[in-house]
């Protein structure tokens, strides 16, 4: 690259038009990820669900209006094709439930890496080099799409070597982390950890580019909690939600039924 083709100046920083929601919800089974994803999507418009959970999202079809594409092979082509179909058919929201399958499920990236390692005589470093373009293709498809994207992620225990007060090293659980490639949360503008008790579902924001939600948490999340995030994206509240079906919400609007919510 010649000096003449390099950038020659800075410009004033500003948001450029309406942003698209890129949300990740991670938690154990039964923590409310799928339901919460559908709740958020119902505010944003026509919704498509790429379902890797044996069609389990259809359990909520009596509460939410959405279309579903069940899949059982979790290749990069499956994911990128779903994004294209959703875009071409004028969906506004795509839910990937769950994105973890594209990492460790049937034909997912880990299985591809294992097959490549065997083919390369146990050279795992070269195998990962072949996986990187597939990882990149998934990221570009989701993050660069003109869709609101919500992914759910399963979790696993995070183990670390911890030195106790006697100087002994112990292997301990230090929390949970999403089942996906390392640092997957960097790709999303809003990330939340979901847990549940006998009576309640709990949501805690672990990453937010919207300062109004940084560090926030709530019990039994509904639409009210996400209003600051939608407004930060540049969206406007539809003043007459009961008169406009979700499929007809204007591109820069979000729908909201009046509901209460406890926020901490």
Class per helix and strand makeup: alpha/beta
Number of helices: 6
Strand content: 25-35%
Mean pLDDT: 85
Global geometry:
globular
Per the CATH scheme, the topology name is Rossmann fold
Helicity, as a percent range = 25-40%
Main β-sheet description: 9 strands, mixed
Q: What would you say this structure looks like, in words?
A:
By secondary structure, the chain is α/β, with parallel strands linked by helices. It is 25% helix and 26% strand. The protein has helices at residues 33-44, 76-88, 101-104, 109-119, 124-143, 227-232; strands spanning 22-27, 47-51, 67-70, 93-97, 148-153, 155-163, 169-178, 190-196, 201-208, 217-219, 236-237, 253-254, 262-263. It has a nine-stranded mixed β-sheet, sandwiched between helices. A hairpin with a 4-residue loop joins strand 8 and strand 9. The radius of gyration is 20 Å and the shape is globular. The relative contact order is 0.18. Residues 241-250 and 257-264 have low confidence and may be disordered.
Quick overview of this protein structure:
This protein is an alpha/beta fold. The protein is built from six helices and 13 strands.
Give me some keywords for this one.
single chain, 264 residues, alpha/beta, Rossmann fold, 9-stranded mixed sheet, 6 helices, 25% helix, 26% strand, globular, disordered C terminus
